[in-house]
Amino acid sequence: MSITRVLSAAMLAVGLAAGPAVADSSPSPSASEDSGAPTQAGTSFRTAAEIDQGQRATASGSTGDYLYWSFPADAGQRPDVKATVKLPDAHAGQTWQLDVYDGLRRRQACQYGAQTRTAAQGATSVELACVMRTVRAWSEPWADDPLPGTYYIRLTVVDLTSADLGQPVSAEVKVDSKDIGGSAAVDGSLAEPLVPGIAVKAESAADGSSSDDGSSSDDGSSTSKSAVLSSIEPDGGWSSGWWSDRWVWTGIGGVLAALAGIGGYALTRGSGRPSRVPPGA
What's the average model confidence in pLDDT over 123-130? Predict the structure, then answer.
């Protein structure tokens, strides 16, 4: 009975310890209000409209335009990008495409989702989706893995008739993500997230010519602020890259292994020396 009580108490403690890990693996909450979401899109990478995850951004344009948005994604997240294009009342068949690029402007592959779709003649709208691969905290320089930083969304039409060129359309974009947790953790992290302007900031800090607050250089001459082209980051800031719920499950595995050893010893050691056998026998 004592072994049963010990095992029950240990399993209860394991369940309590696993609670935060289970919570971390749930999908991240979406923003409840879209009042701060942009109502127009950029026309290039440099002018991409910044949106947070969970925001529903809108924009108006014309068929043939390139529409750009940017959003932050941190290690362990699997972004899910969705876009809806509302088409004019009268149009021929046309094909729309949704592309996602990372902070190095490398086109990222989609795990699944309708990244390219064709709207039939007279269709009122077309919906696109791209579920990216899980963002890694670190990767080899030659690899094409998604890394923490800014990601760019590009929405455009890739096939249409000349008669439909320039017709007004409206687009709606939203980015959500699922926190994958320790199953996607790696032993390493980037020194800085891949966001626009980070190289300029690092260079300025290294040569002492300027600082983030726009202070003067060492020789007394005044300098302007460092170029920071991205002002968005995940809620709570960028992760450090070393902690994940894998540590919790590793500890739980160690506790279970110790309990299994104790239980096995208790079952195999027997009841001891029989009472009929004298101590000196």
Answer: 95
Half-sphere exposure of 23 (CA within 13 A, CB side): 6
Burial per residue of 30-41, b for 16 or more beta-carbon CB atoms within 10 angstroms, e otherwise: ebeebeebbeeb
Query: What whole-number distance in Å separates Cα of residue 100 and Cα of residue 155?
Result: 9
The tokens describing 8, both together, are 């029950």
User: Mean pLDDT, the chain, as a whole number?
Assistant: 77
Residue 244 has pLDDT above 50, yes or no: yes
Q: Which of the given ranges, 29-33, 107-111, 215-219, 227-231, has the highest pLDDT on average? A: 107-111
pTM to 2 decimal places = 0.69
Strand, helix or coil at 229?
A: coil
**For 179-183, what is the mean pLDDT?**
74
